[in-house]
Design goal:
The chain has helices at 4-8, 12-35, 45-69, 84-116, 120-132, 137-146, 148-153, 159-173, 176-191, 195-218, 223-227, 229-259. It is mainly α.
Length: 262
């Protein structure tokens, strides 16, 4: 919510700052808390969870501070008795997003289950690729294509992980532009009050394409075939997002633009 407010008022830089801070902090803390670097406790997978919580908490605090100090177009007031119409509107727009976040976690579990049929190293590679997705898609996509080994070694990658991960990270990084298209379309659709169609775009990627294709391709016995499910899902979701965005533009926006005086 706090990240969307600056976007809605045209101050996208502040939203980027809060999101980038959370993602960078998460990436830095991951290896420190997982493997116990710099005197920190070696927490394993619990360390990854803790790093995520700390990163999200920091991002929320920064987003709140920026809205209070920089976003003058929005007045934030806190009350324990919000008006009923506001609660209904928040639930209408926010509940599908909440459900989507929960389903995304289930998607990660399901996809990792498919990869685990081949090796735990494949799961680690996918996890590393997913972590850096939280950054700026275009910039980090280029860095991952050019320096995939550097990113993998940040996750204490073994030589086996490096061997199978370099090509996969380059392939998955090429999909980041499509992820940007999908995110843009879902944000526009949701801003028009259509939260359920917005959720459908992400569901089409994760459940209509990604998991079924990953499972079917795993039947070939080739881990290389399984990776193809990711760009396939990104292409499908980007197309679905653009088609829905065009539909709502023609239905709700184009008429308003055409009636505006020149």
């Amino acid at each position: 919510m706090l990240e969307r407010m600056p976007i809605a008022t045209g101050k996208t830089l502040y939203s980027m700052i809060s999101q980038a801070t959370g993602a960078i902090l998460n990436l830095i803390l991951d290896p420190i808390l997982i493997f116990g670097y710099f005197g920190a406790p070696k927490l394993g997978i619990s360390g990854a969870a803790l790093a995520t919580v700390i990163g999200q908490f920091a991002a929320a605090c920064i987003a709140l501070a920026l809205n209070l100090t920089k976003n003058k177009k929005v007045r934030l007031r806190f009350t324990l008795r919000p008006p009923l119409y506001a609660v209904r509107q928040v639930l209408h727009l926010g509940l599908p997003t909440t459900v989507l976040f929960a389903l995304n976690s289930f998607m990660m579990i399901s996809y990792n289950a498919v990869l685990n049929r081949f090796s735990s190293t494949a799961v680690a590679v996918f996890g590393a690729c997913s972590r850096v997705t939280g950054f700026f898609y275009a910039v980090v996509g280029a860095l991952c294509v050019g320096f995939p080994e550097m990113f993998l070694r940040m996750f204490n990658a073994t030589e086996d992980m490096i061997a199978i991960g370099v090509w996969r990270m380059r392939m998955l990084s090429c999909c980041y532009l499509l992820c940007g298209v999908r995110n843009m379309s879902t944000a526009i659709i949701q801003s028009l009050g259509h939260s359920v169609p917005s959720m459908a775009v992400d569901l089409s990627r994760n459940y209509a394409v990604l998991i079924p294709f990953a499972w079917l391709l795993s039947m070939t016995g080739s881990i290389d075939a399984v990776w193809v499910s990711v760009p396939t899902a990104d292409v499908v979701s980007a197309v679905v997002g653009v088609l829905l965005m065009v539909r709502f533009y023609r239905k709700e926006i184009r008429g308003l633009v055409e009636t505006q005086p020149v």
